[in-house]
Amino acid sequence: QVQLVESGGELVQPGGSLRLSCVASGSIWSINAWGWYRQAPGKQRELVATITGGSTYYVSSVKGRFTISRDNAKSTLYLQMNSLKPEDTAVYYCKATRTPVVGQRIEYWGQGTQVTVSS
């Protein structure tokens, strides 16, 4: 089992910056992929960014503004968000993918943290 706890979400003004954190605990040994998702009111949950090994991916709407990273020593995933826009307002979720056995993938989700971008 893997437990993910997110933090860092808050009210921020347009153009501002915010850093989200996701601390993992439990069976973290075989986690090989991390990701951030978000869900805005009235919209479906969407993938924001992923990091797998040395590779990263960003949805086009956040490319150049957001940076996903991790600190293995602290078992923590980060999402640095710059130049925030009102449309970035959403609940942000952390996801970890674990592969305990070849061919078996298990996804774990955090509880979410609210990010509100408004004047």
Could you explain the architecture of this structure?
- With 119 residues, this protein is mainly beta.
- The chain has no helices and 11 strands.
- It has strands spanning 2-7, 11-12, 18-26, 31-39, 46-52, 55-58, 66-71, 76-81, 90-98, 106-109, 113-117.
- The strands form 2 sheets. Strands 2, 4, 5, 6, 9, 10 and 11 form a 7-stranded mixed sheet that branches.
- The model has no long low-confidence stretch (mean pLDDT 95).
For the largest beta-sheet, the strand count, sense and barrel status come to:
7 strands, mixed
Number of helices: 0
Q: Give the SSE order as H and E letters.
A: EEEEEEEEEEE
Average pLDDT across residues?
95
Structural class: mainly beta
Rg value:
14 Å
Identify the overall geometry.
elongated
Write the layout of secondary structure elements.
Elements: E1 2-7, E2 11-12, E3 18-26, E4 31-39, E5 46-52, E6 55-58, E7 66-71, E8 76-81, E9 90-98, E10 106-109, E11 113-117
Parallel strand pairs: 2-11
Antiparallel strand pairs: 1-3, 3-8, 4-5, 4-9, 5-6, 7-8, 9-10, 9-11
Q: What's this entry about, in short?
A:
This protein is an all-beta fold and 119 residues long. 0% of the residues lie in helices and 56% in strands. Strands 2, 4, 5, 6, 9, 10 and 11 form a seven-stranded mixed sheet that branches. Strands 1-3-8-7 form a four-stranded antiparallel sheet, with no helix packed on it.
What distinguishing features does this structure have?
single chain; 119 residues; mainly beta; four-stranded antiparallel sheet; 11 strands; 56% strand
